[in-house]
Amino acid sequence: MKSMRFITGLFIILLGLSFLFDFPFLKILLALLIIWLGIKVLSGDDKPIAEKIDTSVIREDSTRSVHVFSGFSRKLESEAFRGGEIVTVLGGGDLDLTGVKAGTKTVEISVVAVLGSIKVRIPKDWSVSSEGVGILGGFENETVPPAKRIIQLRIKGAAVLGGVTITN
């Protein structure tokens, strides 16, 4: 979870330094985005990255992953899920937690999406505490609160020129 803060902090520091010393950080980032979009147009592929990836079912009690220029689709199954960390840069993904049971009353997940998106699906009986920030992007909690709060999910992180969506 400290790595999420590190990546977000590093991005913000680089952005600040680029303004201070007239370093073309934003220009480089924009150039990479335009190149990526050009490759996507030339390939003729209009499906989102997450739709092209087969969903893999994984049995683990926590998840950690970093995806750069790629995507993922994971369905986790666990009897004692503890949380995890996910980072996407110029990619996207889908994390399905509907098949997990929490190991504690509070589960914490950190997510960072830079020029990409992450969709997190949670069980219907979990309540969500979203502590994320969108920087030219969105960090959305679209869950329906349960009638009886059993498990508390805390989602922390950032969406920089991208999006994070939590649904149930």
UniProtKB/TrEMBL annotation:
* The entry's keywords: Membrane, Transmembrane, Transmembrane helix
So which domain of life are we looking at?
Answer: Bacteria
Q: Where are the transmembrane segments?
A: 6-39
Which protein are we looking at? Answer: Cell wall-active antibiotics response LiaF-like C-terminal domain-containing protein
Identify the species of origin. Answer: Candidatus Gottesmanbacteria bacterium RBG_16_52_11
Give the organism's phylogenetic lineage. Answer: Bacteria, Candidatus Gottesmaniibacteriota
